Amino acid sequence: MSADETTQPGPADLHGRILERLRGEPEALEQLVGLGLEHVLDRPLEQLVDAEWLARALTEGVRNSARSNEFERWVAERVEEALTRADRLEGALGERVPVTLLGPVEKALGRPYQPDRELVRSLLDHPSTRTILRELLEANILEFGKRMRSMVPDAATKVPKLSGGGFASRLAGVAKGVATAVGSELEKQLEPRVNAFVDDILGVAVDQMVDRVASPEFAEDFATWRVDVLRSLLGQPVDRLVAERHKYPPGDFAADVAAILRALAAWRGLGEQVEASLTELIREYGSTSARDFLAGSGLEEAWRPALQEALVDGARDFVETPAFEAWLGVLLEE
Predict the structure, then answer these.
(1) Structure confidence at residue 196 (pLDDT)
(2) pLDDT value of position 16
(3) The organism sits in which domain of life (predicted)?
């Protein structure tokens, strides 16, 4: 046996040395994680993302969840846990928003914005919108008519006393009777006339509403309205907002999510559509490296140190486990 053969470490010795260095020299893991991140950042995106594989994984994930008998219960439990935490919140909503954030948000909401008129119409002009407007207009016009009618007998009863005794009294009574009869008849005729009137002006009312929203003349007013809505919302107590969640119980939410997921899973073209979308993104950015894609955003400088530290900490914990030690032993076996 040669000297080289006698001095060459066996698998057991090599196993021990690797474990000792990984566990006792933290800079080794730091270098390994750093090399891995560099490798990822320098590779083109088309090499990092396989559109076909990712589309298949996403599609199968959706379909497996849809097939699971436990999925709906799982969603309901997660939602209930989140809402239970929300139930413990107190104070106004604005107290939980950084003061420094309010200025930029209000400035963004307060910028004049003039949406496209046909887009506004597509959002507002529907049978349901017209039904709501019809009910509001009819109710308000009828109420106005009733108030006007109530003034008629009051005015008629204020007949001055006339000389002539019984004749004057009978004349006043006739006046009251006429006023009451006229008022009753008007009330009978009022509702169908209001309905017909509202039907005639409903289209005009919708057009005016669309014009207001899309008009540059009212852009400043709507900008002010958006800021007012924000301020009003921030002033609301958190518990009042949280109380709204009871109107949409977690069980109903979970059932709706499950139904939507099942419908999505039943779509035969799901995988093809996901893959086509991913392929289009890769076609546009595929030749760009992850580092070049992030250049100028500040994101690499912000998240890389924290990500590397988290990965190194995780790796240190992992190499200390018996599972890693056993895996390394199997890897080094001859």
Answers:
(1) 85
(2) 87
(3) Bacteria
Q: Which residues pair with 44 in a beta bridge?
A: 289
Which pLDDT score is estimated for 71?
Answer: 92
Q: Is 267 helix (H, G, I), strand (E, B) or coil?
A: coil
289: which strand partners? 44
Which residue type, as a one-letter code, is found at position 164? G
Residues in the chain: 334
Task: Quote the pLDDT of residue 172.
Answer: 46
Q: What is the DSSP string of 163-208?
A: SSTHHHHHHHHHHHHHHHHHHHHHHHHHHHHHHHHHHHHHHHHHHH
Give ∠ CA 159-165-167 in degrees, rounded to 5: 70
Give 245: exposed, middle or buried? Use CB within 10 Å, 0-12, 13-18, 19+.
middle
How confident is the chain (334 residues) per 10-residue block, as mean pLDDT?
55 83 87 93 91 93 92 92 84 87 94 93 92 88 74 51 50 48 60 82 89 92 94 90 85 93 93 93 90 91 92 93 91 78
> What is the rounded radius of gyration, in angstroms, for the C-alpha atoms of the chain?
37
Structure token digits, residue 207: 């057009």
Q: What is the pLDDT of residue 192?
A: 81
pLDDT of residue 90: 84
8 A C-beta contact, residue 21 and residue 241: no
Q: How many CA atoms lie within 13 A of 122 on its CB side?
A: 5
Please work out, in degrees rounded to the nearest 5, the angle formed at the alpha carbon of residue 207 by the alpha carbons of 203 and 208. Answer: 115
18 Rama sector, left if φ>0, alpha if ψ -120 to 50, beta otherwise: alpha
Is the distance from CB of 325 to CB of 8 less than 8 angstroms?
no
β-bridge partners, 92: 237
pTM of the model: 0.68
Residues pairing with 108 in the sheet: none
From the number of C-beta atoms within 10 Å of its C-beta (0-12, 13-18, 19+), residue 170 rates as exposed
- Which tokens go with 328? 């390394």
44 φ, ψ (degrees, to nearest 5): -60, 150
